[in-house]
Design a protein that fits this description.
Order of helices and strands: HEHEHHEHEHEEEHEEHEHEHH
CATH superfamily: Aldolase class I
Number of domains: 1
Largest sheet: 8 strands, parallel, barrel
Shape: globular
Protein name: Class II fructose-1,6-bisphosphate aldolase
Radius of gyration: 18 Å
Oligomer: single chain
Pfam family, one: F_bP_aldolase
CATH architecture: Alpha-Beta Barrel
Organism: Anaerostipes hominis (ex Liu et al. 2021)
CATH topology: TIM Barrel
Cofactor: Zn(2+)
Strand content: 15-25%
Number of strands: 11
InterPro entries: Aldolase_TIM (IPR013785), Class_II_FBP_aldolase (IPR050246), FBA_II (IPR000771), Fruc_bis_ald_class-2 (IPR011289)
Bound molecules: 1,3-dihydroxyacetonephosphate, zinc ion, sodium ion
Structural class: alpha/beta
């Protein structure tokens, strides 16, 4: 069933686990995430970035996720990931997305606060929850460059930001980066705990592909309720497709190699649902 993120993330927060948010880019990835969640009886969030939205349109992805949600008994959320303008956030709201991120983290504090508050005010009458970001996630999320400046979220700023914007969830910078890590990511668990101490709303971890499972579990213990995975789903899908072409270079049936990609994504998502601790929580 299609639902909003607020209910499942507040339940996760109360229960001390997290819900995985998986970036989907085609029908097979949507199917894979839904099947994994169904099999493990877990709530799940599917999300699309602005560049994914540009590829096929909000309506195409929403239609896929809606169909997947209708075919499963577990709660499924359709979330806009890294919404980069008020306008795109409003388009997602009107299209029927059930959760929206506005990412003003590259702006100055006050500017970030203003746009995040505006999106929250626009979405809340429709009971669509809003995620915002303060601090920075390194690396590159599709077209968005995280840059190299101080990435860490200041706990006191986070408190003020959450209170004054009225957003429902807050993505924080604690040392993760989008994409594949060059070395081991160095996460600042103490900063996360200090944010948790002063911010009441569920916290979100970005850039989780490449973060060791044990570190993710530690973050969940310290207050992370939504865990974003993107790059590793691309890698899994491509691995499945490549496997088919390697075995039979004459393959021409898209169903054949896409199904192999789907299977790899499903396996990956099942393993990460277990890391999040949300299996059986549907
Ligand atoms: P990764 O690509 O590192 O998994 O990051 C995902 C993410 O943060 C999506 O918003
Ligand atoms: Zn992200
Ligand atoms: Na990453």
């Amino acid at each position: 069933m299609l639902t909003t993120s607020k209910e499942i993330l507040l339940k996760a927060q109360a229960g001390g686990y997290a819900v995985g948010a998986f970036n989907v880019e085609n029908m097979e990835m949507v199917q894979a995430v839904a099947e994994a969640a169904e099999e493990l009886q877990s709530p799940v969030i599917m999300q699309t970035t602005p560049s994914t939205v540009k590829y096929a349109g909000l309506d195409y992805y929403l239609a896929n996720v809606k169909t997947a949600a209708e075919r499963t008994s577990v709660p499924v959320v359709m979330h806009l990931d890294h919404g980069n303008s008020f306008e795109l956030a409003m388009q997602a709201l009107r299209a029927g997305y059930t959760s929206i991120m506005i990412d003003g983290s590259h702006e100055a504090f006050e500017v970030n606060m203003t746009v995040s508050r505006a999106v929250a005010n626009a979405c809340h009458p429709s009971e669509v929850p809003v995620e915002a970001e303060l601090g920075k996630v390194g690396g590159k999320e599709d077209d968005l460059d995280g840059g190299d400046d101080n990435p860490y979220t200041d706990p006191q700023e986070a408190k003020e930001f959450a209170e004054r914007t009225g957003v429902d969830f807050l993505a924080v910078g604690i040392g993760t980066a989008h994409g594949v890590y060059k070395g081991e990511p160095k996460l600042q668990f103490d900063i996360l705990s200090r944010i948790r101490d002063v911010v009441e709303i569920p916290l979100v971890l970005h850039g989780t592909s490449g973060v060791p499972d044990e570190a993710v579990k530690e973050c969940i213990k310290r207050g992370i309720c939504k865990v974003n995975y993107a790059t590793d789903l691309r890698i899994a899908f491509t691995k499945g497709v490549k496997g088919v072409f390697t075995a039979d270079t004459d393959t021409i049936d898209p169903k054949k190699y896409s199904a192999a990609g789907r299977e790899e994504v499903k396996k990956y998502v099942m393993s990460k649902i277990k890391v999040c601790g949300s299996a059986g929580k549907a």
